Amino acid sequence: MKNRLLTLAVLLFSSFISVAGAWASGSEFVYVESNIQSANGNSIFAFHRNADGSLTQISGSPFLTAGAGIQDRSFTFGPYDSDQNIAIDSQRRLLFAVNSGSDTIAAFHINSDGSLNPVAGSPFPSNGTNPVSLALTGNTLFVANKNGDIPRETSLQPNYTAFHVEADGSLSPVAGSTVDVAYNSSPSQALVVPGTHLLFGNNFTGGLIQSFKFDDEGRLSQRSSIALPPIPGIPLVNVYGNILRLGDFGLGLITHPKQPVLYVGFVVTNQVGVYSFNEEGEFKFLRAVPNSGLAICWLRINRKGTRMYTGNNGVEGDPVHDPFSTVSVYDTTDPENPKELQTLQIAGVGNVTQIELSSDERSLYVVSQRATPAIPEGQGNALHIFNIAPDGTLTEKQSPIQLNVPVGSQPQGVAVFSER
User: Fold this and answer.
1) DSSP assignment of 326-372, as one string?
2) I want to staple 394 with a disulfide (CB 3.0 to 4.6 A). Which of 13, 65, 266, 386 is the partner?
3) Is the residue at 401 inside a domain?
4) Is the dihedral of CA 116, 365, 312, 252 positive or negative?
């Protein structure tokens, strides 16, 4: 009997070691879009995550998207901002990326070494102008078409639309799925609420949070929308044809993973807006909580729903002599009452754009841009790696990875694919 127990223990221990080894050996890859404006110049930087959390660029990277990005030499605030420029289908090892300057969506197969091969027929028309954001659920890919690339602006209205992801990774439009929104409203993000048939949209210069429901085919129907709260004492201003109160700007949407709560970055007032919502996608504004950074624009939350991270695009103090953006950490244990725990400057110079968590939630990846003339040309475009402590706070121990793009280009979007 003792021998049997010993044998069983050895087998169980061996199985544990085998599983632990397989987990440890699983690969993780990080992708960033170069957003280069020239014809067929846009591409995807690809990195392998090493055991110590550092990143190594993959052979062949960057991988061309066969399209163009966008470029803002005027450093205009707002119209060029967006989120979720890259989407990943982990089950089918597919990566999708916007070609914001050529109105297409690039599709790639993700190889075992993290390199990318284009899907046959890629890139695919985005069914609008200036696609900026992607949201994937099952076999449906939603796209926000901003029509906000100022040098190419058309009379077309911005829209939200849907595509079916075919078995080979190609995209086909979902008939009847396109919903137009107000001209110059500048949609910046499409966000699927996991486990529901709800899609939330962020119309930046329109000052609105949009709500849609979608059916099993991906056809969208517009539901309620809610205006961001006005700021008392702030006069009305004309922003790209929209009459707004300064402060009515929202970037960055994320939902709590366990409660029907939506968080929104209030850019000008440096706050996080907190909303509840019901199964019909109807919103109720609860409160706004302060942020110690400037121009809070991008949000991510961990799987437990206990920590939320924000990317703050503005600079602290004198933008000429102190051109640093920040990231912040919130305690969201009480989902309706986030509490700021930390705000930390990024290393080097640059304006924070998008952020993403690693699969094990031990790292936060942050893309920065040269988004102000105070930053010397050739600087500011980088990928930052923050270590996440057990309490959720951040440190940046590694030097930022400089993203080699032409002068004037501003990288955007960051996404993670993990085999673990």
Assistant:
1) EEEEEE-SSTTS-EEEEEEEPSSSBEEEEEEE-TTSSEEEEEEE--S
2) 386
3) yes
4) positive
Q: Is the dihedral of CA 314, 315, 320, 323 positive or negative?
A: negative
pTM for this prediction? 0.90
Q: How far, in Å, CA of 181 to CA of 348, rounded?
A: 39
Domain that holds residue 412: 27-418
Residue 149: give its domain's CATH number: 2.130.10.10
Number of C-beta neighbours around residue 388 at 10 A: 21
Residue 151: DSSP 8-state: G
- What is the domain count for the chain? 1
Q: Is residue 157's pLDDT more than 70? A: yes
Query: For residues 248 and 385, which has the higher predicted lDDT (pLDDT)?
Result: 385
Tokens (6 digits) for 179? 């919903």
Asked whether the beta carbons of 188 and 83 are under 8 A apart, the reply is yes
Dump pLDDT digits (tens) for 350-361. Answer: 889 999 999 999
Highest mean pLDDT among 22-26, 74-78, 148-152, 328-332: 328-332
13: in domain: no
Q: Which amino acid is at 416?
A: V
